[in-house]
Design goal:
Length: about 210
Amino acid sequence: MPTGIYLDKRGHRLPSVTQVLGKAWSKPALVAWAHREGAAGRPLNKARDDAAEAGTAAHELILARIGGPPADLTRYSKEAGSAARISDHHAQAWIEDHTFEPVVVETALVSTKMGYGGTPDWYGLLDGIPTVIDIKTGGLYAEHLVQAAAYRLLLIEAGHKVERLLLLRAPRTLSGHPDTMQRSGEEEIHNYSRAWNAAITMYEVRMIIGD
């Protein structure tokens, strides 16, 4: 899950999907997580960085199973690699029950119409249905479906058809289990696209007032 720089045709920098949602969407779950880490005496920055590294490594492993490039865990710490393997194990149980025909895997896309960029984890045919998949190693929230809807709009602008949004949760703990959250159908997906458009507006407001 690379965090690239997105530019329009004139070379102007555009916000990413995650940047927009970071400004526009409150995150009570993140606040609660930060409180737990602090109460346990763990430095917040280190806990955040460790979780991000493990999540990135897990993405590599899981995407390699469904059409992405081979994973290389030598770039990560031993702890991140161990956590990533647990996530991969959970994901494997779900992956084995489905068929995958990848079309776009971790490819940076830019919307010239709406002025933002993003990198979907995976897009292709999942059991024959054009689907955008976003992989998570933490909890699944409505915000993540809005994120997937933003990726869908990028894919449509690039000429692809998307009929389903799917979140795959592959936790980093042995006690967890794989889980999914999905939306399909024009009306249902449209509601999340509307939410994304509202998030862009809120992002622009906050950028104007400097909040």
